[in-house]
Amino acid sequence: MGKIFERIDDKLRAFIAAQPMYFIGTAPSAGGHVNISPKGYRDTFAVIDEHTVAYLDLFGSGSETIAHLRDNGRITVMFCSFDRVARILRLSGTGRFVRPDSPEFAALSGRFGTGHTGVRAVVVVEVDRIADSCGWSVPRMDLVEERPVLDEAHTRRTDADFARRITGDNSVSIDGLPALEPDHPLPSALRRDDQGTALTATADSDRLPR
């Protein structure tokens, strides 16, 4: 039987930290397409407090989640156990995306790994429903390794490549909802702090060539 939780306690934090991937679900307010995005890299997700979580959003071929959050803010994060003990955990609430040139981004970025080269934003979720379910039909699988392909691909991309993505397939959702703005910072505008533990945007990030 599923259970509703009042808060993200230490046991739920431990379950979340143990999962090598998670899924993001969003949808537009009217019509359009529901979007489910699988996410890897354990160091891209963080529990901020008992009712707030966040994840480091990396560039991809589209920006459905950002567009949907701009439209209505509705979001569900799902964790699914693939090991011996079956379990599904859903965190539902209201999300927003934080641009790299926002002061809030600098405060949040220290919670994530700094080795990802294609950082687009941080998504913050204010969680209003925490629920688990059995997951008994989910197959049991072993993790071989994290897949480095996305980070490697971002490392090879130039500023011009990212600029085309910002004003192209990342500018609107597949249903035409606005996503990234034309002045969205490029990944190269981010720098690590002296300890290499946080990312911040350089002051002139909005003047980088596009």
What does this protein look like?
Strands 1, 2, 3, 4, 5, 6, 7 and 8 form an eight-stranded antiparallel beta sheet that branches. The protein has a two-stranded antiparallel sheet with strand order 9-10. Mean pLDDT is 93; it is low at 205-210. It has 210 residues and is an alpha+beta fold. It has helices at 10-18, 64-71, 103-109, 149-156, 159-167, and strands at residues 3-5, 22-26, 35-39, 45-49, 52-58, 74-80, 88-98, 119-133, 190-192, 199-201.
Radius of gyration: 17 Å
Number of strands: 10
**Strand coverage percent:** 25-35%
Order of helices and strands: EHEEEEHEEHEHHEE
What layout of secondary structure does this protein have?
Elements: E1 3-5, H1 10-18, E2 22-26, E3 35-39, E4 45-49, E5 52-58, H2 64-71, E6 74-80, E7 88-98, H3 103-109, E8 119-133, H4 149-156, H5 159-167, E9 190-192, E10 199-201
